[in-house]
Every structure is written in structure tokens, then in C-alpha cells.
Amino acid sequence: MRSIKGRIILFTILLVLISVGSSWYLASKTCEDLLLRRSIDDQGKLANSLEEALKELKRPEAISFLSKNKGLIEDRILLYDTTGRAMWDSKPDEAKIEYLFGNLEFQEALRGTEVTKYIYNENSGYYTVNFFKKIALQDGDIVITLSRTLGEISAVRQKLSLYFFMLMLFVLCLATFFGHLIVRRILHPLGELSSVAENLALGKPARFSLVGPPEISNLARSLKEMAENLQHALENLSQQRNDLKQLIDLLPAGVILIDNEGRVRYINESAINSLDMPQGDYTGKPFIGVAGISKLMELYDTLRISPEASVEITTSKNKYLNCKGRRISKGFLLLITDMTEQRQLELARRNFMADASHEFQTPLTVIRASAEIIMDNPELPQEEERELLKKIVNQQERLSKLVDDLLYLAKLEAQPNKSMMQKRQIVDLAQLLREIVDEYRDYPQARKISWNVVIEPESANVLASPEELKKAIGNVIDNALKFTRQKYEDEDGGFISVSLIDGHTHWRIQISDNGVGISEDMTEGIYERFQRGSVSLKGRRKTIGYGLGLAITKNIIEAHGGLIELTSKAEPTTFTISLPKLPEKNRD
Q: Is the pTM of this model over 0.70?
């Protein structure tokens, strides 16, 4: 029944059936429990009376007494000795039980407890109540069992079933008749409201009748207000949708909305222009046939299994696009940003750094040549002249190193993997680390510094360019040596710790020192170029280095698929370098 009328009538019938059935069940159980309880009480009283009559007798005398009086007792009487063997049965023509020693009720009776057990026979529909009690005779204990079959329960249940069945038919007829009248009166106004709702759905004017029962008139009034509010909301929603479409169309970024079936729901002009697509209406068309760019298809496939993803795309017209996607409740949202200008600016910046560094070499070489000539000029005092020229030469060497580092860093940033991939080979990281540590230990500035070197593995193979890797690790150790020396100068107390441990999938190099540490404001950009450290010496700040070492190290380590982290900025300052282990297939 799909109509409300049919459902209400069906519900009323079910409610009547459930009520009458529950009442019948409760009445049946109540009568059944009362009859069982009365039978149990009667048997208890009978057992006590028999105990009074038999306790002064011996077993043969007790059996003789019961045989004479069995016609006066309705229950079946059975006598058992303490081993569970049957001694006498008042109704031997019924089912026999010869041995009861293993029976739980029999064992309870032997311990002096009066035990009652009732059993329901499904074939006959009768309950059998068994009562067990121990009686002490003159020549020993016996267990008397009283058994009674209750046929009254079945008769009472049949009568109750007949009465309740007649009652159920009467109540059902009555409920159906009055339910039909009441439902008809209620549903007539609802039918009118349904017609009004259909007119609203079709966009036709609708008139709500406010006449009828209070509940129906209140519902009609509420529906009228809801219809008016809905109309205003639809107008506002349409206006907001148009405003949002105009706003998205004006965005510099491309926006594509795809539904769960892979069809384009919306695409703005920026996306069409960025992807070099022909002008036209793509709404409702399959996205796979519209985009035509393989990486964009890969992004779409990734979003089916991942909530977010992004790809970099280079178009045929040398446009650099950054495409980010996110899975939403009803499909997928793609955001396309044109990074061509930023990429060109970055390339120009790198070229400028490389060109500027190259141009620095010429004047610096001239300075060095001029300084060497002045050193041989006899017009100045020799000692003063040499001291001055040594300073010029030292500055030239420092600037030359800066230029070399700039060129090297620019090369790494432009092509981080190309040069190192050509030089990569199997390198024993443990042996390489020992050689680097031994080299820095021999430096004059390393005197009075304690070294703690722990290299656990005998060999630690990685696939790397040994020269670049030595430069990267050396930069970190050089910084540790430099900043430790700045703190302790020529005094004892400085230490540098270098360790190599097995990190499951990576080899981990930890380099620690108790030097001047790293200030709070330097931690975020510590791997940026020209991020130089400074220390406080004799009441004034002194800048140390050019700030290129860690930038070079970071680029080299990442080009090898590794990671460098500042794991402790306080004393001791600790840097951790992680490098991937050599794959199993390449170890032999």
C-alpha cells in the first residue's frame, strides 16, 4: 500500500493484531504460571504429608503403605534408593526410568534439597511436573518422586485462544470502519494541498486554502510562506550564480569543474586560453576528449584515487602551467595557473648570477697580478709592502672562491641532476666520511678541538658523485669547525661529533658541534644563499662566511635523492644528512 490512507489503515490493523496478540500471550503465560505454581505447592504439601507418614517405617512397610493408598493420590509416585535404582512405581504402565543416579535433580535431593522440575511435551501439549524429596526411613534414606501431568494448561490456552480470536475479529472490523472515516476526513485537505504543490512545481500560480482543521490550515499557511521564501531564494540564487560566473570568468587562473561522470560542468575563459583550446561551449562534454593533454589526463586519473594532486605542464607554445586538482563532493575541481612569467624571471635571475660571477673573474685576476708586481717593487719597505700585498692576495682568493661558489650554485640550480648523473658511481659512504674527517682533523684551526667519530657500518654503499658528495659533507664540517673555533679561539673545550648510522632505507650522517649555535631568526632561511652566520666577539657582532655553503650542500644532497635537516639549533648544533641506500639489485 503506497497511499497514506492504506498505510494508516494497515498500521491500525497491525496495531490491533499486536495488541490482541500481546494480550493473549500475557494472559496465557499468566494462567500457565499460576497453574504450575499451584501444582508445585500441592506436590510440596503432599511430599511433606508422605514424609510424616513414612518416616517411622522401614522400606518394605513404606512400599506396602503406598501400595494400599495409591488410589487416593492422583500423582504418580516413584521410590528410589540412594544409588538411584527404582524401588517402587505407583503407575508402572507409564514410561519407566530404571536408574537416576546421574540425574542432577536426584543428586540435589540426596543433599537434602527439595527439587522441582517441569517439562513441556510438544507432542501432547502437556506440562509434566516432577517433585524430588529425600525421606529418612528406619532402615535408610530413600528419594520419593511425585510426577503430575497438567492438562488444564492446554485446555485454558485453547479457551483463551478462542475468546481472543473472536475479540480480534470484532476489534479489527471496528478499527477498519472508523479508521476509514477518520483518514478520509484528514486526507481530503491534504489532497488539495498536493494539487497546489504540483502547480508550484510546474511554475504555475497557486492558491492555498486556509480552511479546514487547525493542523491542516497551519500547514497550508506554512507552505504558503515557504513558497514565497523559496521564490525569493531562487531569484537570489540565480543572481549570485550569475555574479559568481562573471567573477570566475575574470580570474587570471583557469578553473575547470568536472562531475563524477567525467563531464565538464564549467570551464572559464582563462582555462581555455591557458590550454590553447578553441573557443566554444564545452559544458556537458567528456573531459577526456576536451583537454587533449596527457599530463592533465594523468592528473584527472590521480584525483580518482587521491583527494589532491598537482602537475607541471609545458604546452606546445612553451607555456609553463601549474595545475592543481582537488576532489569535491560532486566531482573534481582543477585550478590552472600560468607560471610562464615567473619561470622566465627565475631563469633570467639565474643567468644574471652566472654572468655576474663570470664577469667578476677578470678584475679580480688583474688585482692579483697587480698585487704580485707591487710585491716586487723595491720603493716600499719590504716588510710593509709584503704585508699589504698578502692582504690583497688573500682578499682576491676569497672573492675568487665566492665567484666559484656562485657559478657552482647556479649550475646546480639550473641543472641539478645532469652533471651529477654522468659522474654517479657506487661510493662507500663510510670510507668517504673517514677521508673527509681525516682531512679536516689535519687543518691548523682544528687544533685543541676534540673529535668524536662514530662510523658503525664497515661499508655503506650509495649511488653518488663522490666529488659533489665530498663537497656537500665538507661544507657542513667546515661550518662546524669554523663556528667552534670562533667560540673557543685557541682555548680547549670545543668538540665536533661525526656519526654514520643505518636508518633502514637511508644512511644517516649526523654532524654536531658546540660552537656559537644558530640564532632564532636564521633557522627558516638557513639554506638560502647569502644567509651568513654572525657571532658576538668581544662585544661586537662579526659576520662569518659568504652564506653559500649550506645552499650548495642542500642542492647536492637533494639531487642525490636525500635530505638535510637542522635537527638541533641549540648546543650542540646538529645537522642530519640522509642519503638513500644503494638498491639491492645494484649491490653485487
A: no
